[in-house]
Amino acid sequence: MSGMTTRRTGAAPEPAFETLRDSYLERCDTVLWSLAPGGMVLHNVVSGLYLELDPLGYRVWGLLDGAHSASEIRRICAVGTPDCAGMQARVDQIIETLLQYGYVEARDHG
């Protein structure tokens, strides 16, 4: 995916994103992050994975606070963009990658 680079040393796949659209998402406690020119870098200290996020990924990361569902994050990021569907597809890819490699977890709201 453009704008994101993952180095994998081993991680179990997470649930498919399609089943989690209405789940509330939050950053895993095992992830360290740092701002970098043009975005940020994440490090999952348990899996040993590193992930570089572009500015959109940085914005998505900021919304992964446990108070927003994947659907809400899609809508927030697409506001004011000329290609709403394209932006939502990019947000889906970012969230799916974060879930797949253990940077984010889904939880029930309530």
What key attributes describe this structure?
110 residues, alpha+beta
The beta-strand count equals: 7
Write down the overall mean pLDDT. 85
Structural class based on helices, strands and sheet pairing: alpha+beta
N-to-C series of helices and strands: EEEEEHEHHE
Low-confidence stretches: 6-15
Our estimate of the beta-strand percent is 25-35%
Largest sheet: 4 strands, antiparallel
Rg value: 13 Å
Head-to-tail CA distance between termini: 33 Å
The number of distinct helices, counting runs of at least 4 residues, comes to 3
Q: Which shape, going by the Cα principal axes? A: globular
- Assign a percent range to the helix content: 25-40%
Order of the strands making up the biggest sheet: 1-5-4-3
Structure characterization notes:
32% of the residues lie in helices and 30% in strands. The protein has 110 residues and is α+β, with helices and mostly antiparallel strands. A four-stranded antiparallel sheet has the order 1-5-4-3. Strand 3 (31-36) and strand 4 form a beta hairpin. Helix 2 packs across helix 3.
Helices and strands, with pairings:
Layout: E1 5-7, E2 24-27, E3 31-36, E4 39-44, E5 49-53, H1 55-63, E6 65-69, H2 70-78, H3 84-100, E7 104-107
Helix pairs in contact: 2-3
Task: Summarize the structure in short.
The protein has 110 residues and is α+β, with helices and mostly antiparallel strands. It is built from three helices and seven strands, in the order βββββαβααβ.
